[in-house]
Amino acid sequence: MNSKQELSEQWSMYLKDVIDPIHQLRADLKYRQHHTLQHSRHHMEFNSGPVLKEVDFVKKQLKAVFASLGREQQKIENDFSDCSVKIISYSLEEKTNLLSELPTELETLECPYPELKSSILNEFCNFTEKYQKKLHDFDLQLENIYRNFQLSEEDHWIYQAVLDQYPGDLVGRRTLYLDMLQRYFPHKSRHDLVQHEKYCDQYHFAREQRRILIENWSKNRKDFIQKAALTLLEASATYEMESTLAKDRKKQQELCADLKAKVFQWRAHQEEVARLEMEISARRREKEEEKEKLWRKKELLKREEKKKKIRKYWAMKEQKWQEMEMRDLQRLEELKKLMAEQSVKDRERVQYRQALLEKRLMEKKEVALQEAHEEEERERRLEALRKQVAVVAQFDPVRMMSDTIASKAKMGTDMEEEFILQKPLFTLHTYNERQIISDPRLRFELALREAGLHKTLYAKGILPKISPQKPPRKDMESTVFKI
Q: Which residues form a coiled coil (predicted)?
């Protein structure tokens, strides 16, 4: 704990004395650079000499600090390398005890099955024996390699320091540090140094393998302890469950016995209750029978009285019905007489009304005949008027469009010359009026125009479908309706 506190204090001091000034100088330089750039836009001069001197001063301080740190690092690495050369001080028996001691986690756990716990401990012993044997082999190998070292402890420390001076990625590193070792150890041949190098490599490799073996053993030991603890816990849970089931079974048997006794007692009570209920019901039935007999006697007496009352009532009813029937018969005779008299009166009224109706019909027929005769007379007079004003002249469009004789006489023009002027220049071979009127398309269009339907969708759809009487020639066929 004290070492951690000391390291934290040293780290805080290092940050305060080395890192914080560097960050402060960096921020100061950025600010000055920004300030310089702004002033350079206005063409102002800036003296950078003091800044460069300050930067150089900080660089020198950092170089001194890093040099001292490098020396401390070298010293610590040398101490570690010296310690790494020495073999671990504890003996083989202590190592064996370290591996062979039983884990306290398994010993402290309680197991209801001693055979299971002993088998787990035996399995752990067999598991550790394999690692003990391998660890013993590695320890013997390390001792043999250490005995074969060609240098003493002090010389080995120098050897390790020389090797640490050359980085691992340096080209020709082995040749360089072997040459340097021959300078430090002139009394040793190059073969001895190479042999010592080989033993050192073997020693480091064996120690690394030993470390890996111990790590694997620790990991496997931890897994084994976890699995064993889980197995023991499951066994305890199973034992508790079995004991609980046994207790429950015993309680269930006791409960069944109690329930059986209670059932027998309840059955005896039920039988006694049933017997008492039967006796009570028998006594009640006797009372009910006696009550029913008395009620029947009373009912017989009541029925006799009711029968007498009913006979008296029906006698009175019969008398009333006879009286009512006599009254109804008398009323019926009176109504029949009235109806006969009314029917005679109705028959006379019907005959009178029928005579009036026939008279009215005859008058209407005479009026209708008179109106028809007048209508025929009026039509005859209209026809005579139509004949008087009927058109006698034939249809002549040329005569209709030409001037009259009176207008010609008034204008003083020659009749012959006017007739020549009205004649066409060339003889036209076209359709005449009869042929045009006979065309079904024109007749259908005129009919639609008279009906006011020539602009409807029906007219537009039906007119193109009407074909002429004579189909046109193929070279004269119209394509208007095909567009």
A: 273-307, 358-385
pLDDT in tens, 221-237: 777 777 777 777 777 77
Domain ranges of the chain: 16-82+91-250
- pLDDT, one tens digit per residue, over 284-337 is 888 888 888 888 888 888 888 898 999 999 999 999 999 999 998 998 999 889
Q: Measured at the alpha carbon of residue 230, what is the angle toward residues 227 and 231, in degrees to the nearest 5?
A: 85
Per-residue pLDDT of 122-139, as tens digits, reads 777 777 777 778 777 777
Six token digits for residue 213: 């073996």
User: Are the C-beta atoms of residues 166 and 173 closer than 8 Å to each other?
Assistant: yes
Q: What is the pLDDT of residue 109?
A: 64
Total residue count of the chain as it appears in this document? 483
pLDDT at 371: 93
Average pLDDT over residues 50-78: 71
How far is residue 289's CA from residue 283's CA, in Å, rounded to a whole number? 10
Closest by Cα among 153, 144, 148 to 196: 148
